[in-house]
Amino acid sequence: MTLDFPHRRYNALTGEWVLVSPHRAQRPWLGQVERLPPEDLPDYDPACYLCPGNARAGGARNPLYSGPFVFDNDFAALKPEAPAASPPESALFRSEPEPGLCRVICFSPRHDLTLPQLSQTAVEQVLATWLAETRDLAARDFIHYVQVFENKGAQMGASNPHPHSQVWASQHVLNEPAKELRTQAAYQAQHGRCLLCDYVGAETHSRTRVVTQNAVAVALVPYWAVWPFEVLVVLRRHVAALTDLTESEVSGLAELLRRVTTRYDNLFEMSFPYSLGFHPAPVDGQAYPTWHLHAHFYPPLLRSATVRKFMVGYELLAMPQRDLTPEQAAERLRSLSDVHYRAR
What pLDDT digit, counting tens, does each position of 174-205 carry? Predict the structure, then answer.
């Protein structure tokens, strides 16, 4: 099938479809134009509630930390104690308690350094913190899923520019991982093999959508990508959880994350917004041999630093749609340097 013809692609990881319309990439744009974030932030901001030594919004004061700093979210979406729900009036009004815990992880004391600007050692420390927090939260008997994620930039809802991530741990397996759990199990039952092992093998063989790779992991624009410059990061070894990673795998994954995020920033020469999240197996005490650890990057920008993709209309009511093909997006990202534009 030619790439300039409208077609739909199947997402083997979720069981859903996406419409690809390459001919629309040249349509004129007179819609919303985003404001660029400030390029020069101070290394310390006395008004920032995440900087070392400063008071947080909830009243607590941060220590003078020197590496990753973790604290319980002062305005957590989940709480450990959740009262039982009242009996529903009918099956149409169903609710369940959702106990959980939410934590914030500041990457470093520097207010101005995002992941691609941190050193290799500093990113390894961030990953090690994600592993430690996952292990700690998963040990609690009421926690069955641990979601690590980062929202970078105001366009992705970050409430503070100080680089940080979050970990939300909940009693139930979440919607998106639940879809992937079903598809990975179904693929294994039908083919006798791991879905993502097969997928990475096929992608690295063709190399069409691979952005960058090393001995530990592969970063690619998935065949079924919805967001313009979406990236999927898959571990080469079949592991189910962040806590299964070896020290050398943590190092290799940190290197790959730095490469991906550096290319993002280099694309439009700005601090590139995205949501990043890891999808590990549930932590409910069961074995999940079909699960393969991976991470998703979902960035909103489309054709420039000021024009973003909107999920509206057809995409909300029918199915996702994209103009730029995944192959074109991968080629653009692949052509970029691993050296950050501000370090040249």
Answer: 999 999 999 999 999 999 999 999 999 999 99
131 three-class SS: helix
**Rounded to whole angstroms, what are the CA distances from 181 to 46, 98, 147, 171, 194?**
44, 20, 14, 16, 12
Structure token digits, residue 177: 């991982």
Tokens of 34: 């985003």
What distance in Å separates the CA atoms of residue 96 and residue 213, rounded to the nearest whole number?
42
Provide the residue ranges of all domains of the chain, joining segments of one domain with +.
40-81+94-343
How many angstroms separate the CA atoms of 104 and 164, rounded? 7
What global pTM score does this model have? 0.95
For 228, phi then psi, to 5°, come to -50, -50
In total, the chain counts a number of residues equal to 344
Q: Is-contact 219 235, C-beta < 8 A?
A: no
164 as an active site residue: the answer is yes
Note the CATH architecture for domain 40-81+94-343: 2-Layer Sandwich (3.30)
Residue 342 corresponds to which tokens in the numbers above?
Answer: 């501000």
* Phi, psi torsion values for 246, nearest 5 degrees: -80, 170
Which tokens in the block code for residue 235?
Answer: 């571990």
Q: Which of 111, 144, 162, 164 is catalytic?
A: 164
